[in-house]
Amino acid sequence: MLTARNLTKNYSNLHVLKGVSVSVSKGEIVTIVGSSGAGKSTLLHILGTLDTPTSGEVWLNDTNLSLLKGNALADFRNRHIGFIFQFHHLLPEFTALENVSIPAYIAGTRKAAVRERAAYLLETLGLSGRLEHKPNQLSGGEQQRVAVARALINQPDIVMADEPTGNLDSKNARELHQLFIELRDKFQQTFIIVTHNEELAPMSDRQLVMKDGGIVGEILASATQK
């Protein structure tokens, strides 16, 4: 479903990515692991079109993302790629329901349909009693679940998560990773997750190990972990 070929990223004489190729199938949870500075977040941002490679191509289904520019790229990203970050980036003046709805409003979806799907997602994620709460009325784990619902509102082909548990305690981190598995099983949702969490990374279908700007290994989940 997602294929990246020979991605490089250079900043003057600094080579952050050195010919990285990645392939991810629909309904797969892939984690990218490695030490700080290995190039994990840079790779994720390029796969998610938040950054551009120095060379190489990224394809999502039949679309060459490297050819999209400006408004066409922004529209494609909004409709086909969801994002979850370490910090929730919820707008403080809006309720959980409103925060989740924003990407769908940007996509031009009818307001009634947006609110219905946003409420459904929040209820699915265990937040049925929190729809009208603002971020400062939610716990850290609840805020991250709102961010997950926001990432799913446009039914994206793939969700990119950059250290999504980095700001959570161990209990909420474990619950969030379990939530990703449940969403994969229920919606066939595809995830690429950058994480330093050595306990939770093995819960994915595959781990891609990065070092010095390249992928140096791949670890498959055991049958007991899937």
TrEMBL record:
Gene Ontology BP annotations: lipoprotein localization to outer membrane; protein localization to outer membrane
Gene3D superfamilies from the UniProt entry: P-loop containing nucleotide triphosphate hydrolases
Protein name, entry field: ABC transporter related
Pfam family, one: ABC_tran
Cellular component aspect of the GO annotation: plasma membrane
Keyword Translocase: yes
GO molecular function, one term: ATP binding
Ranges of residues in domain ABC transporter: 2-223
Keywords (A to Z) from UniProt: ATP-binding, Cell membrane, Membrane, Nucleotide-binding, Translocase, Transport
PANTHER family in the record: ABC TRANSPORTER ABCH.1, IMPORT ATP-BINDING PROTEIN
